[in-house]
Prior knowledge:
Blueprint: H1 14-36, H2 39-46, H3 50-56, H4 60-88, H5 94-107, H6 111-124, H7 128-149, H8 153-171, H9 180-186
Amino acid sequence: MVPPVPSTRTLSTAEERREAVLEAGMRVMAARGPHGTPTMDVAKAAGISQAYLFRLFPTKTDLAVALVQRCNERIHATFVAAAAQARAAGGSGEDILHAMGESYADLIQDRTLLLMQLHGHAAAAEDAGIRAAMQDGFRRLHALVKAETGAEDEEVAHFFATGMLMNVLAAMGAFELDEPWATSLCAYKEYDDPA
């Protein structure tokens, strides 16, 4: 009798599988949003069974919340890095605010992140778990922008309003258009106090 050949297959840890689900979930849910994406599609894209997906994320909302948190964390980390770089170059206040704004303009070039973020905003209107995750993300970003820049509330509100306009313009491809309305709105990419 021939002894069995040891398996060369390495088993993934739950954390590795969770990461694979989040990576796949970003791509899949960005296309159709949390409510329009079957969990089976996410499981298939991650290379796991739907049953295992629900072991990692007990509900579809849990998965959507984790994806929203991932988007929020990526924006937060991008702002932290931009602020550090601006400060290292001798900048402060409005220099840091401008650096954060520029870093956000670069970040939303990632279509998956942009779409997942927009879907998160829409889903927050009807899903309390997603709403709480979005609120927490904005709470953290608001605190970071205030702490790093020393900006007044009105200036911070303008910064966030500009970011939301950038989301909409990027989603509809307005930055690539050579039309008066698009040129006018895209030129509004100012991150400092409008006054």
